[in-house]
Specification:
Elements: H1 3-16, E1 38-41, E2 44-51, H2 57-91, H3 95-106, E3 118-125, E4 132-139, H4 140-154, H5 157-160, H6 169-184, H7 187-196, H8 201-223, E5 224-231, H9 235-251, E6 263-281, E7 284-298, E8 310-312, E9 318-321, H10 324-351
Parallel strand pairs: 5-6
Antiparallel strand pairs: 1-2, 2-4, 3-4, 6-7, 7-8, 7-9
Length: about 350
C-alpha cells in the first residue's frame, strides 16, 4: 500500500467517524424516570442508566448498563445507611436495643453492593445528544433467593452449634471469633436481605446467631478472672511481667478481676537467669548471662492450652558486659521481655488479633 493510499483511507475513517445507530421517533418516557431513574414494578426493580457517546458505540450501552446497576446499588446502600441511623437512635432507648445495634454494625456493608440477576430490557440512543440509555430489570425474588442460598450454605452446623463451654472459655472465644470472621464475608449479603427481605426467616436466624455469638464473647471477656503468677529472680521482675500481661489483656477487652467470676484462667510464667561463662573481647573480659523462661496458660477446668504456651531460649536472652551486675540485670530484663513478648504473639495468633 502506498503512502498516498494509506493517507486516503485514514482521512476516510476520520470523515465517517463512529457508526452510531439512532432510534426512530421521539425519545420514550422511560428514559426520564424520576428520582434516581428507579422504578419499582411488582416484584422487580427497573432502573435506567445512561452514558455519553464515545468512539465505540457498542461500549456506550455497556457503560449505560453499569450506570444503571450503580444507581440501584446506591439506592440499596442508601437504604442501609438510613436504617443504621434509625437503629442508632433506637439504641438510646435502652439496653434491649443495644444488641440489635451491635448486630447491625457487625454486618454493615463496607463495600459496594453487588447486583445479581440483572438483564437489559430496553435500549435507546438519543439522536440530538448521542446519549445511550438502557433500562435494566432486576428480579427481586431471584436476587433474594440467591443471597439466601449463599448465607444458608455459609452458616455451617459447627457455627450454629457454638455455645459457651465454661470449662474452656478461651477455646470458646477462639471458635466464636472464627465464626465472626466467617460471617463477616456475608456482610453485604446480610445487608441486602435486611433491605429486600427484612422479615425473612434466614435473616432472623442469622440475627439470632450473631446475638448469641456476641453474648459468648462478652461473657468470656467480662466474667472470667485472670490469675497471673510469675516465678522470677525478684519480686520486682515478677510484678513487672504480670503487670504487662494484665495491661495487654485489658487492651484486648478482658476484665482481669470481675466481681462475680464464672471461673479462673491461670497464667504461669517462669524465669531463670544463669551464668554462661566469660568471653574475651579485644583486650577485655566480659561476663555472659542468659535467661530462659516459659509461659503456661490454663483453662478454667485446669487443662493447659498448648497453643498459648511456649519457651524463651537462653540464647535469645543472652547478655554480656564487663560488669557482672550489668550483665545479670540486663539478661534478667531481656528474659522478662521475652516472656511478655511470647505471650502477646501466641495470644494474637490464637485469637486472630491483627496486633
Amino acid at each position: 500500500m502506498t503512502v498516498r493510499a494509506g493517507l486516503f483511507i485514514a482521512l476516510l475513517f476520520v470523515a465517517c467517524g463512529p457508526n452510531y445507530y439512532f432510534d426512530k421517533g421521539p425519545s420514550p418516557d422511560w428514559i426520564r424516570a424520576k428520582g434516581e431513574g428507579l422504578i419499582r414494578q411488582g416484584g422487580a426493580f427497573l432502573v435506567v442508566g445512561s452514558a455519553v457517546a464515545t468512539p465505540n458505540p457498542q461500549e456506550d450501552f455497556v457503560l449505560a448498563e453499569r450506570d444503571a446497576l450503580a444507581r440501584l446499588s446506591q439506592m440499596i446502600q442508601s437504604e442501609i445507611s438510613s436504617r443504621e441511623e434509625v437503629w442508632e437512635a433506637s439504641a438510646i432507648a435502652g439496653k434491649r436495643e443495644e444488641k440489635r445495634l451491635v448486630f447491625e454494625q457487625e454486618v454493615k456493608a463496607k463495600s459496594r453492593i453487588s447486583i445479581e440477576g440483572a438483564k437489559v430490557v430496553r435500549r435507546f440512543r438519543d439522536k440530538e445528544t448521542r446519549t445511550a440509555y438502557v433500562m435494566v430489570e432486576v428480579d427481586k425474588g431471584e436476587w433474594v433467593a440467591r443471597v439466601k442460598d449463599r448465607v444458608s450454605r455459609a452458616i455451617t452446623e459447627d457455627i450454629k452449634s457454638l455455645a459457651l463451654d465454661k470449662g474452656k472459655p478461651l477455646r470458646s472465644l477462639q471458635l466464636t471469633k472464627r465464626a465472626f470472621s466467617a460471617l463477616q464475608t456475608l456482610a453485604p449479603d446480610i445487608a441486602v436481605l435486611s433491605v429486600l427481605a427484612p422479615d425473612d426467616e434466614v435473616l432472623a436466624q442469622t440475627r439470632a446467631l450473631i446475638e448469641r455469638l456476641k453474648e459468648i464473647e462478652t461473657t468470656v471477656l467480662e466474667r472470667f478472672a485472670w490469675i497471673i503468677n510469675v516465678d522470677a529472680p525478684s519480686s520486682d521482675v515478677s510484678d513487672k511481667v504480670a503487670k504487662e500481661i494484665k495491661t495487654f489483656l485489658s487492651e484486648k477487652g478482658f476484665v482481669i478481676s470481675p466481681s462475680s467470676a464464672l471461673g479462673r484462667i491461670v497464667v504461669k510464667g517462669y524465669l531463670k537467669v544463669k551464668y554462661m561463662g566469660s568471653e574475651r573481647v579485644a583486650n577485655r573480659v566480659e561476663q555472659v548471662y542468659g535467661a530462659e523462661g516459659r509461659i503456661v496458660v490454663m483453662e478454667a477446668d485446669g487443662s493447659e492450652v498448648p497453643a498459648l504456651g511456649g519457651s524463651v531460649d537462653e540464647n535469645s536472652a543472652r547478655v554480656q558486659d564487663i560488669s557482672e551486675q550489668v550483665a545479670l540485670r540486663d539478661a534478667t530484663m531481656a528474659g522478662a521481655q521475652g516472656i511478655v513478648g511470647l505471650f502477646r504473639s501466641k495470644f494474637r495468633l490464637f485469637f486472630g488479633y491483627a496486633q
